[in-house]
Amino acid sequence: MLSILKPVGYYEFKENIISNIYVLKEFEEAYNNIKNDIDDNLNNKVKFLDIESNSYIAVCSMDVLNIAKGILNESISSPVQIVSNGIEIEISIYQMGIFEEVVEATVIDENYEAEEEIFVLYTKNELKCVDSLYHSLREKGLLSALKRD
User: Fold this and answer.
1) Helical packing angle, 51-59 and 132-139, nearest 10°
2) Half-sphere exposure of residue 133, counting CA atoms within 13 Å on the CB side?
3) Sign of the alpha-carbon torsion through 59, 63, 66, 72
4) H or E segment at 95?
5) Are 34 and 28 in contact (CB under 8 A)?
6) Residue 77: its pLDDT value, please?
7) H/E stretch holding 66
8) 110, 28 Cβ separation under 8 angstroms
């Protein structure tokens, strides 16, 4: 059985004690709705991820991967727009070189712009990105397109 887990956030530990709790954009509102019912000591540890981190989590989500695979398999030429991790994403196909088609997932949300363009490339066999933040988030298991049991 294949199960795919959607991350909500992650913890940081200092001397085996939780020092920070980071919440993804998609779950910020849910946290804000319950924070009055949570102890202040715990609330003081809760932080929200930055724009770039949330953007990479969005473009590397399982939702985006499934659409990218569909676009590659069916050669859909018009861009597809979805909301992932609370951020608008555009997914489009283009030719990379002579032999390889790739799908690019890009943040297009006007209310959530990063300093640099955030995007990844999907091919039939892999996900491509050179940004060090992408690799850091991948190591933390926050990119659901790459997380499988």
Assistant:
1) 70
2) 17
3) negative
4) strand 87-96
5) no
6) 79
7) helix 62-74
8) no
pTM for the structure as a whole: 0.82
Lookup result for tokens 């949330």: 54
What sign for the dihedral angle of Cα 137, 26, 46, 117? Answer: positive
Contact 105, 59 (CB under 8 A): yes
Best CA proximity match to 65, nearest among 132, 148, 8, 149: 148
46 SS3 class: strand
Phi first, then psi: give them for residue 57, nearest 5 degrees. Answer: -60, -40
Q: Which two tokens stand for residue 38?
A: 């949570």
Judge contact between 6 and 144, C-beta under 8 A: yes
pLDDT tens-place string over residues 123-142? 877 788 888 998 999 888 88
Element (H, E) at 80: strand 80-84
pLDDT tens digits, 30-50: 999 999 999 999 999 999 999
- What's the rounded Cα separation, in Å, for the pair 93 and 79? 7
- Structure-token pair, residue 1: 């059985």
